[in-house]
From TrEMBL:
The lineage of its organism: Bacteria, Pseudomonadati, Pseudomonadota, Betaproteobacteria, Burkholderiales. PROSITE patterns: ADH_SHORT. Gene3D superfamilies: NAD(P)-binding Rossmann-like Domain. This is SDR family NAD(P)-dependent oxidoreductase. Belongs to the short-chain dehydrogenases/reductases (SDR) family. Keywords: Oxidoreductase. It comes from Ramlibacter aquaticus.
């Protein structure tokens, strides 16, 4: 699909990997809706890229529907969905005081990262399936954001790894399910990237993490994630695939 002129939705588009992807889509000519729980930051990004900002909690169906309606009113029906919103967590199963990890923490991460992504995707797919087909019968494309933690999660990452592993497992069946509607589905599993969250860590910690990456021995750039996300859109034969973007990193247990 040619990105130029098409409407795109980016969840988590107000910062980090989502912001970089929103900016790259806009640079390539897409009409971009920045969906995020942080409306003020979403408005800032949207203003800079000529897009529209939409308050959006992906765990809330009404919130997603309202955001999609606002985006459609501004840009027309979307053919591109970038699922990038997500949260992290690290909890030992048995904590230092001997108590079990709180179930609420596990459930929250699964609900946002996995259920929330499915929620946004199902609503997008239902709308996209109604659109007229483009070349090759394609109607749209969506991307999930997993993580290398889906494959080699570290100590304490049970919730995060399970949520991202769920996205990996959902990729192929979702692609097969939506093939009849001409909607493609792919997933990116990023490694260690220089995001605002990462930059909150002390500089020596960041350097140590970067040194663990075989090549190039540095943190990934959000722009590199965005470039791959946009390539998925433009390469119509990419479907049902999970792509690691990690510089050959394999995470150690700790």
């Amino acid at each position: 699909m040619n990105i130029q002129g098409h409407a795109a939705l980016v969840t988590g588009g107000a910062s980090g990997l989502g912001e970089a992807t929103a900016r790259e889509l806009a640079r390539l000519g897409a009409r971009v809706a920045v969906l995020d729980v942080n409306l003020a930051q979403a408005e800032k990004v949207a203003a800079e890229i000529g897009g529209v900002a939409c308050a959006c909690d992906i765990t809330n169906t009404d919130s997603i529907a309202a955001a999609m309606a606002k985006a459609t009113a501004a840009h027309g029906p979307a053919r591109i969905l970038m699922n990038i919103a997500g949260i992290g967590s690290a909890k030992r199963v048995v904590q230092k005081d001997g108590t079990p990890a709180p179930l609420e923490d596990f459930a929250k991460v699964i609900n946002v990262n996995l259920v929330g992504t499915y929620n946004a995707s199902r609503l997008f797919a239902a709308e996209c399936a109604r659109l007229a087909p483009l070349e090759d019968g394609e109607r749209g494309v969506m991307m999930f954001t997993a993580s290398v933690a889906a494959f080699d999660g570290q100590v304490g990452q049970q919730a995060y790894s399970a949520s991202k592993g769920g996205l990996v497992g959902m990729t192929l069946p979702m692609a097969r399910d939506l093939a009849q509607h001409g909607i493609r589905v792919c997933t990116i599993a990023p490694g260690l990237f220089s995001t605002p969250l990462m930059r909150q860590l002390p500089e020596p910690v960041q350097q140590s993490l970067a040194a663990s990456i075989p090549f190039p021995p540095r943190l990934g750039k959000p722009e590199e994630f965005a470039q791959l996300a946009c390539h998925i859109v433009t390469n119509t034969h990419l479907n049902g695939e999970v792509i690691r973007l990690d510089g050959a990193l394999r995470m150690a247990p700790r």
